[in-house]
Design goal:
Acetoin utilization protein AcuC; His_deacetylse_dom; alpha/beta; 391 residues; single chain; acetoin catabolism; histone deacetylase activity
């Protein structure tokens, strides 16, 4: 297995100051993965990214928007196109580091498509809310969309994007809503209770691309078992029907039970199970071509570093045993970086990642209703039976 990890400490400059999206979560992820020996495995290559140029960014973003981002990156106070808000405050160097993240994710996807790597990851990426001409949800440039656009440019005919962030992957969906070559699948907390207020099951793709968007809107409080039941009731069926040539996954960790910005109840054990399921699907439906990014996640010490270290382990070889202790060196660094925050001593929460397969009407709860709503809206577009659990 040959896995490319796009990384440079310069990516930590995506720093909005006193803001939930703290780069310490990425720093601690890479430190934990290093201390556990994951980044030193055979077949793992770390590569420093190059900044995406304006022409690359313009494959998904309006040139006028790119110009505004550049202007706001010099210290000018601008409140336009989603910038200058509490969600997206401007900061010096914003354009450069945002373009660097876009370049990292694009290079990851390009390497996998061209066969230079079997899998690749851009852990600082996953900024899925950015719109063609507007910043949103802590995101300036939409690096997953830039990466997918590059794979299409190289000749891909079918790319699947699966988003497991707690927030709807609205920017990526918007950018490819009318493109039948791109299937966007998003599992997220219901838009009735969480930003960005989109991602209803009836959002299924634009004219000529009907069925190209699939949305699973889960009720607040959904736990490991419910989330995994919903995932397996929807995602494998549509991916098998679509037959992607490459699988891109946005792996936001804000589904965590103690995440301060959302209301799902997954443990790191449930998140680990999701990564294993995505790996198996990439192998089955996309010939193993798998590109992953990070995303949201605001339990900066308690969850994100462990969750994404599990992701890095799955991408680079064997999964980490949940009972593995976190190294003392990492615990010391985490305590220094975030004084007063509890530092996990194991790679597990003691969660139970077991789940029961979906059966129509068997568990008439909110998760079951969400599953049925999605299957009813989306499955006919793939020639699948919404009521048949075998599909």
């Amino acid at each position: 297995m040959n896995t490319l990890v796009m990384w440079d400490d310069a990516l930590l400059r995506y720093d909005m100051g006193e803001h939930p999206l703290d780069p310490v979560r990425v720093e601690l992820t890479m430190a934990l993965a290093r201390d556990l020996g994951i980044l030193g495995r055979d077949g793992v290559t770390l590569r420093a990214p190059e900044q995406a140029g304006d022409d690359v960014l313009a494959t998904v973003h309006d040139p006028d928007y790119i110009a505004v981002v550049k202007a706001a990156s010099t210290g000018r106070r601008l409140s336009i196109m989603g910038l200058g808000t509490s969600d997206n405050p401007t900061f010096t160097g914003m354009h450069d580091v945002s373009a660097l993240i876009a370049g990292a994710t694009r290079a990851a996807a390009e390497a996998v498509w061209l066969g230079e790597a079997d899998r690749a990851v851009s852990i600082a990426g996953g900024l899925h809310h950015a719109m063609p001409a507007r910043a949103a949800g802590f995101c300036v440039y939409n690096d997953p969309a830039v990466a997918i656009a590059r794979v299409l440019e190289l000749g891909a005919e079918r790319v699947a994007y699966v988003d497991i962030d707690v927030h709807h992957g609205d920017g990526v969906q918007e950018i490819f809503y009318d493109d039948p070559r791109v299937l966007t699948v998003s599992l997220h907390e219901s838009p009735h209770s969480l930003f960005p207020g989109t991602g209803f099951p009836v959002e299924t793709g634009g004219p000529g691309a009907e069925g190209s968007a699939v949305n699973v809107a889960l009720p607040a409080g959904t736990d490991d078992a419910g989330w995994l039941r919903a995932f397996h009731a929807v995602v494998p069926g549509v991916l098998r029907a679509f037959r992607p040539q490459l699988l891109f996954t946005q792996c936001g960790a804000d589904t965590y039970r103690h995440d301060p910005l959302a209301n799902l109840r997954l443990t790191v054990d449930g998140q680990r199970a999701a990564y294993l399921a995505l790996r198996d699907l990439a192998t089955e439906v996309a010939g193993g071509k798998w590109v992953a990014s990070g995303g949201g996640g605001y339990a900066l010490v308690e969850c994100v570093p462990r969750a994404w270290t599990h992701l890095l382990a799955v991408l680079t070889g064997d999964a980490v045993d949940p009972s593995t202790p976190t190294p003392a060196s990492w615990q010391s660094l985490a305590a220094r970086r975030r004084p007063g925050h509890p530092v996990p001593t194991e790679m597990t929460d003691g969660g139970n990642a077991q789940w029961s397969p979906w059966v129509p009407g068997q568990t008439p709860d909110g998760v079951d209703r969400a599953i049925m709503a999605t299957r009813t809206a989306s499955f006919p577009h793939f020639g699948l039976d919404p009521h048949d659990p075998r599909d």
